[in-house]
């Protein structure tokens, strides 16, 4: 598995037909026991959501992807996992497979109104984020949250961990599992944070941040343990999808 050096100043890789991907996810969910719980339904914009409910769950987990339209591996990974339908027994899963569908036809980070939705969760104005916040208000609390992303500049896979209560970490086992299928990000500075062995544990005071991503909002409201998984998007798309799948399966198996 080798870096392509295709990305130049932005993501320059292949895109996906997000409408087709979401249709496949919907078919797989409805044939395997998931309940529809849409984030937003309107004539012009729809954000699907699903819940795999179980009686007396021993844990609840939140999954999301598709925050940026130049990060196709996340929705594809959730689609494949949903089709494979091998989820841990007794775990209730809440899933939003694509938070920014208008960005994917443009193969860009921002939605079709030019807004980066992942900077909207403190002072929201975009309908996607306003609807998502309202949707999360009716969700239970989660054991942990997992947000699937990609980084067009990275030379390997890495993750962010938000764990303010110091719970037993999942980061090291995840990186170790992913290492078998994908290079890990080199040690150094990534977006102003120090990466060590593919793990970033940012020291964040949300009150000092003028704009919140989804991860901070979740940590403040629904999930005191959160992971943002970053696949290296200058590698082949199937390899990035596989890396995300390995990471997610590892996390779910550790519950």
Structural class: alpha/beta
**Model regions low in confidence, pLDDT < 50 over at least 5 residues:** none
Strand order of the largest sheet: 1-4-6-5-7-12-8-11
Query: What is the terminal separation in angstroms?
Result: 30 Å
Q: What fraction, in percent, of the residue positions are helical? A: 25-40%
The ordered H/E elements are HEEEEEHEHEEHEEEHEH
Q: How many separate domains make up the residues?
A: 1
CATH topology: Aminopeptidase
Describe how the helices and strands are arranged.
Blueprint: H1 18-30, E1 35-36, E2 40-41, E3 46-47, E4 50-52, E5 59-64, H2 73-84, E6 91-96, H3 127-137, E7 144-151, E8 158-162, H4 171-178, E9 188-190, E10 193-195, E11 199-200, H5 214-221, E12 226-232, H6 237-253
Parallel strand pairs: 5-6, 5-7, 7-12, 8-11
Antiparallel strand pairs: 1-4, 2-3, 4-6, 8-12, 9-10
Helix pairs in contact: 1-2, 2-6, 4-6
Features:
globular; eight-stranded mixed sheet; 12 strands; alpha/beta; 255 residues; Aminopeptidase
In brief, what are we looking at here?
The protein is of the alpha/beta class and 255 residues long.
Model description:
By secondary structure, the chain is of the alpha/beta class. It has one domain (18-253): 3-Layer(aba) Sandwich (Aminopeptidase). Helices cover 27% and strands 19% of the residues. The chain has 6 helices and 12 strands. It has helices spanning 18-30, 73-84, 127-137, 171-178, 214-221, 237-253, and strands spanning 35-36, 40-41, 46-47, 50-52, 59-64, 91-96, 144-151, 158-162, 188-190, 193-195, 199-200, 226-232. The strands form 3 sheets. It has an 8-stranded mixed β-sheet with strand order 1-4-6-5-7-12-8-11, sandwiched between helices. Strand 2 and strand 3 (46-47) form a beta hairpin. Helix 1 (18-30) runs parallel beside helix 2. The protein is globular. The protein starts with 17 loop residues before the first helix and ends with a helix. The mean pLDDT is 97.
């Amino acid at each position: 598995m080798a870096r392509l050096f295709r990305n130049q100043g932005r993501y320059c890789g292949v895109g996906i037909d997000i409408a087709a991907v979401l249709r496949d996810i919907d078919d797989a969910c409805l044939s395997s026991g998931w309940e529809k719980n849409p984030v937003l339904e309107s004539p012009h914009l729809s954000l699907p959501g699903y819940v795999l409910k179980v009686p007396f769950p021993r844990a609840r987990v939140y999954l999301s992807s598709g925050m940026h339209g130049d990060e196709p591996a996340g929705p594809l990974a959730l689609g494949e996992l949903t089709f494979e339908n091998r989820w841990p027994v007794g775990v209730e899963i809440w899933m939003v497979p694509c938070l920014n569908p208008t960005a994917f036809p443009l193969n860009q980070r921002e939605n079709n109104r030019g807004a980066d939705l992942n900077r909207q969760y403190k002072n929201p104005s975009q309908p996607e984020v306003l609807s998502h916040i309202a949707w999360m208000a009716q969700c239970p609390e989660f054991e942990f949250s997992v947000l699937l992303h990609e980084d067009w500049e990275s030379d390997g896979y890495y993750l962010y961990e938000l764990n303010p209560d110091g719970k037993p970490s999942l980061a090291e086992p995840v990186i170790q599992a992913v290492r078998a299928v994908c290079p890990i990000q080199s040690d150094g500075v990534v977006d102003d944070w120090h990466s060590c062995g593919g793990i970033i544990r940012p020291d964040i005071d949300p009150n000092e941040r003028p704009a919140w991503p989804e991860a901070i909002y979740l940590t403040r409201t629904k999930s005191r343990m959160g992971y943002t998984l970053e696949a290296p998007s200058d590698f082949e798309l199937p390899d990035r999808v596989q890396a995300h799948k390995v990471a997610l399966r590892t996390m779910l198996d550790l519950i």
